[in-house]
Write a structure and sequence with these properties.
The complex is a heterodimer. Chain A has 11 helices and 2 strands, in the order ααααββααααααα. By secondary structure, chain A is an all-alpha fold. In chain B, strands 1-2 form a two-stranded antiparallel ribbon. The chains are: A mainly alpha, B mainly alpha.
Chain lengths: ~290, ~280
Amino acid sequence: MLSQQLVNGLVLGSTYALFALGFTLIFGVLRVINLTYGFYFSVGAFVALWLARSLGASIWIALPLGSLAAGLVAVVIDGILLTRLRRTKAGELPSLMVTLGAVLALYALMAALIGTEIQRFPFGFVGSTALEFAGVRVSLVQMLIVGTAFVMVAVLFLLLQYTRLGLMIRALAENEDAARLMGINVDATVVAVSFLSGLLGGAAGVLIGLNFNAIQPFMGEAMMLRGFAVIIIGGLGDIRGALVAGILLGVLEVLTAGYLSSNAKEAVGFAILVLTLWFRPVGLFGRAQVKRA
Amino acid sequence: MAEWLDDFLFTYENLIHALGIHGLLALSMYCVMALGQLSLGQAAFMGLGAYTGALLTLKLGLPFWLVLPISALVPALVALVIGGPTLRLNGVYLAISTIALGEVLRVLYINAESLTGGALGLSGIPQKASLWLVYGLLAVCIAGFWAIGRSRIGRAMEAMREDEMAAGVMGVNLPLYKLGALIASAMLAGLAGSLAAHSNSFIGPNEYGFEAAVTILSFALLGGIGTPIAPVIGAFVLTALPELLRPLADFRLVFNGLIIVLAVLFLPRGIVPFRLRRAP
């Protein structure tokens, strides 16, 4: 059943990649380890769930609107928490701590308001049909997940590479002061990056929610641990690295669960993270940077 | 002892224990933050100390004076493996590599059922941590950090906090200091965990996760890290407050999180903003 495992791993990995992409985008451009990112993931999943349950929305509505809501939440939270620190150029640690406190408060609030029991999408939300290729089963949900992830990643690449906004984002990633001097509207670009990353995180939330059909407030917290592993393995701020590392982690987790034990699965990401830090702290494709006084 | 004091101690014994233990945890956080590093593994190190201590007492029946140092050693070794590689990188890497530690250990505690009691945890741990011991250790640690803070080492630590690169150029051995601080903080957290296990008589796998890590960080952030006493005061305030704010119940963590946000944004030096004095 190795080929079936590989397919399942690929599906899981593409959601990890999608999630990590937004996370690494925030770090690469805004120079912040934003821990509230996991919360956007939960927001995306819950908005989609609410739309599906209360309004009977189909997946084609719930998925985009869930992601969109997460994007807007991301813009608001980033604006409240980080504007002040950005203005004083406070650096990475204070912004990490602020988002750490905020995410604790946000999860606790969400859990107190919604409750922590696992919730599920309505039956038949996505059809249960499955295709078979040479003995490998691929369900509709799985195709939807890989397809959405692929489209979103492709659009992000095109956006960064070929549009004016992409140019602004890349300039900001390179050097904030220089970008400002070149007449780039830095504040607007920051908002755009927050929105894009929230969008990616929210979409990943909906897709993971679909994959396991289990949604609860702290799902983002568990995901963040994988997000950390992926962006460290891929190299902090490295988009290509996050993609490869995300898929790699998904495949390795599924293989570990299949051939070792499903409990060991939780530790796979962490084990690779520690190994990466020991042997290749710059990540898969990174090159060592020397900082000179 | 006066009768009212007896009454008082009896009613609030758990709280008084918790205050002292949280004070030690706050110091363990201080120990890394004083160098401008950030570890989010303090709760995990505490859990390791708690489980190590509890198992040594329950399964092997070792005497308490031997249990305590071993409960400090085990987290130190883990800190070396997890934190070691990050010492040549900047502070963000230490935070990231330690943030997941608590969750991974939680899964381990739950699954190693025969040893750790699984999800039920370990109970019936003899209450060997007297108030004298907890507060004695706390006093010794504060005094120790105070003395170190005023010495040459403290000067180097403060220099690293202000500007790591400049400190390195001036001849401070950065990896050595970072390693020393990380190991000392892991030992201290392990010690506090073991003391907590031997005063609550119960430990469970879910007590040392992300929320506990953030709570320990909030002690140091609220108090400040100008002097060793500051984080301890932060811990006292944040431990005593929930007792007063019991009606908050489910929203207690919301409150803890908001304190961190507000402290970082508006009180970067904490509520005890003084700095250590040194001879010129």
